Amino acid sequence: MRNAPAAHxxxxxxxxxxxxxxxxxxxPGTASPDDRRAVAAILAGDERAFEELVDRYNPSLLRVxxxxxxxxxxxxxxxxxxxxxxxxxxxSFEGRSSLRTWIFRILVNQAIxxxxxxxRSVPFSSLGDDEAxxxxxxxxxxxxWATPPxxxxxxxxxxxxxxxxxxxxxxxxxxxxxxxxxxxxLRDVEGxxxxxxxEALDLSEGNQRVLLHRARSKVRARLxxxxxxxxx
Amino acid sequence: xxxxxxGRDLACREMVELVTDYLEGxxxxxxxxxxxxxxxxxxxxxxxxxxxxxxxxxxGRLEPEAIDPAFRDRLVEAFQGWAEGR
Lengths: 232, 86
Known about the structure:
The complex is a heterodimer of chains A (about 230) and B (about 90).
Chain A: H1 10-17, H2 33-43, H3 47-65, H4 72-89, H5 99-113, H6 157-160, H7 163-174, H8 178-189, H9 194-201, H10 205-231
Chain B: H1 12-23, H2 29-40, H3 43-59, H4 69-85
């Protein structure tokens, strides 16, 4: 699952490949009763049911689309085509996956067929699997913390959960490489399961986890800056 | 398996790379135990895990982005055209 690592990365890579099969994930599952109701309503011409679907998934569709194209306009076009594809495909939706997974698969597939993938053939280096979760300089030669993170008890909870803290997280997510941003958006912002994200974005279990790990590590680092400022 | 040699204590530098596997339930029982054993004795890694959990909590609380009304209108129009054509 990875390129040959440079010598100094070998240790880290061995650790990352030590991934035991996880039974924590359930299967992506099939359409829920809610999904089936929504599909039936839309097929019956219920405009509000369609609007509800749009309001619910459009923001994440846009976030994910922006991983495939270079600007907002192109992303909106891709998402608009996705919704049209959803309408066209809905009569043959069989409910073998959840509705949202199915919708995101349409986005990903149409992004590919439109050729909007641009240069995103996703070389493995872009997984970010050669990046350390924490600046190596923060550890002593033996691997123990030289400058450990600050315990959160030093900062009041209302500061930790403030709008400012959320803004920092949002900012950090926005600056991530595209694939990392896609995965953390679906997993941690939208609360999808690993299995659903893998199916929607066509990722292997190992790649999904590496992307999530790098994304979370970087966002945490930015949040740590905020915690340190707040505690100072 | 060479990396997580039996019995050897994990270093903090290794802990931060295992945090996601830990939170994802992807460590086997023995490695999980080693991870937790290190955690019990290490304030720095405990703080690190706390900060990671805070990160996930905040990410789950982000406000949904508003949809551009003009964009939404176009989609509704597309829906109406689709519904009429059926």
